Amino acid sequence: MRFEAKAALAIGILLPVLETYRRGMSHWSVEFTTMFEDYLAGALLLAGAWAAFRRHPWQAPLLLIAWGWVTGMMTISFVSQVEVTIGGVDLEPQNTDVLVVKFLLLAFSAAALLRSFRFVSARMTPDRPLQPTSNGQVE
Fold first, then answer.
1. Half-sphere exposure for 38 (CA within 13 Å, toward CB)
2. CB atoms < 10 A from the CB of 138, how many?
3. For 34-90, what is each residue's pLDDT tens digit?
4. Whose CA is closest to 49, among 66, 32, 68?
5. What's the rounded Cα separation, in Å, for the pair 120 and 11?
6. 91-115: b or e for each residue (b if 16 or more CB lie within 10 Å)?
7. Cα separation, 79 vs 70, whole angstroms
8. 110 Cβ partners below 8 Å, 6+ apart?
9. What is the value of pTM for the model shown?
10. Once rounded to an integer, what is the mean pLDDT over residues 116-132?
């Protein structure tokens, strides 16, 4: 199993769990969008991991889309957290921990996005789309 699929399974579970742990279930009624985007990102990653484990022909494009979404989301989240930290305004009680976790999630997401892009681009030519082989792998 490729790194980006294993990471999709792990981070797909971690994103909603960490967000719920950080803010609590009651935050759904306060900021629905903040919670929803983490759950949606987790669902996209889990769908990509499931497709990879099942060796579906659309596994690589789905992982690429999921990692693109998560990397963009984590970039915005990390930069925003850095901005709040530098400004010193409205800091969370465990701000440093949140900053470190967001940086790690961003780093793993960016690495998985790069690996997904390389996997997809290596198997495509201008005149040939992704095709599954007899064993279910995408070539």
1. 22
2. 20
3. 888 999 999 999 999 999 999 988 899 999 999 999 999 999 999 999 998 998 877
4. 66
5. 21
6. eeeeeeebbebbeebbebbeebbeb
7. 14
8. 71
9. 0.81
10. 73
